[in-house]
Amino acid sequence: MSNQPPSYGMAMGYPTGPNKNEGPGASYPPAGAAYPSANATYPQQPGIGFAQHDPYNQGYNQPMYNDGFNQPAAYNHPDGSGEAALAVPKASDGFSSAFSDKAIRRGFIRKVYLILFTQLLVTFGFICLFIFVEPIKKWVQNNMWFYICAYVLFLVLYFVLICCPSVRKNYPGNFICLGLFTLAFSYLTATISSFHDTGIVLMAAGITAAVCLAISLFAIQTKIDFTMCSGLLFALVMVLFFFGWACLITYYAWGYSHIMNCVYGGLAALVFGLFLIYDTQQVMGGRKYELSAEEYIYGALQLYIDIVYIFIIILGFMGNSK
Fold first, then answer.
1. Which end of the chain has a smaller Cβ tally under 10 Å, C or N?
2. CA 166, CA 144: separation in Å to the nearest integer?
3. d(Cα 146, Cα 188) in Å, to the nearest integer?
4. Rounded to 5, what percent of the chain is helix, strand, coil?
């Protein structure tokens, strides 16, 4: 018996010794012998492991060097492409990506609500100016042609900002259009407020703030995804639109009807309350449909319109105009 250590062939279970399958021209493993399976356990050298994945379906495992970073070693593909083995991402890459997305979303939310707060502050300033300064109050009530011009400007700028992404995404044109839109809508709201008593206007503003805050908190906390209810919102808007025309015809045919006014106001408040939930969830994200980080103008615009319309509806509920 030889004192030499067992050969590699003995370790793998292949027959060794002086036979016709050994020697310079021998075939290895011997004819008829079964090849080891892809999942066979090979002897490993210190610091060398074998990945349990075959990206090219070649029936063999690829070596992965244990260099302390758990990164695959490069190998030459049979086609000579020299591609690297499995690209194992670092844990730090996934963490930084997730953190970056959350940071972008938080910055987007801060930007949207900062713009919204500025718009509401301008609108409230217009309202206070028109209801407390008597000469301005009389002037706007006696010059309704300026109200019509502001309404036309409001509609034009609204459709420009909604239908033209190139306008609302490019600075500084987007802020200029949004500023003109805010001034026009503020003038319309303040003019309507000037026809109501000062106490009723201030009370309606306070109720609007409380209602919008409650709706916004509900939209953030609820598990119901209102961004999937766009079809329902469209149907409610159509009902509100045609019911408004019916109220207008009734008013000119038979005069003012308090019941129809209350029904129309309640329906309008419901519709714009749902729109506020819908737009808030799109801004906050985490739902099926959410706004991208570039749509801060669109998000602020939609929230601003929802809040101001809710104020006008509540103002109509609380007292008739003079």
1. N
2. 34
3. 9
4. 65, 0, 35
Q: What is the pLDDT of residues 165-179, one digit of tens each?
A: 888 888 888 899 999
| CB-neighbour burial class of residue 281 (10 A; exposed 0-12, middle 13-18, buried 19+) | buried
- Phi then psi for residue 68, to 5 deg, are 95, -10
**Number of continuous H segments (helices) and E segments (strands) in the chain:** 10, 2
Q: How far apart are CA 229 and CA 235, in angstroms?
A: 10
Distance CA 73, CA 84 (A): 7
| Structure confidence at residue 87 (pLDDT) | 42
Angle at the Cα of 116 from the Cα atoms of 162 and 230, rounded to 5 degrees: 45
Helix (H) or strand (E) holding 234: helix 230-254
At 35 the pLDDT is 53
Q: What is the pLDDT of residues 232-279, one digit of tens each?
A: 899 999 999 998 888 888 888 887 777 888 888 888 989 999 999 999
Of residues 247 and 1, more confidence is placed in: 247
SS3 of residue 63 by DSSP: strand
What does the chain come to in residues?
Answer: 322
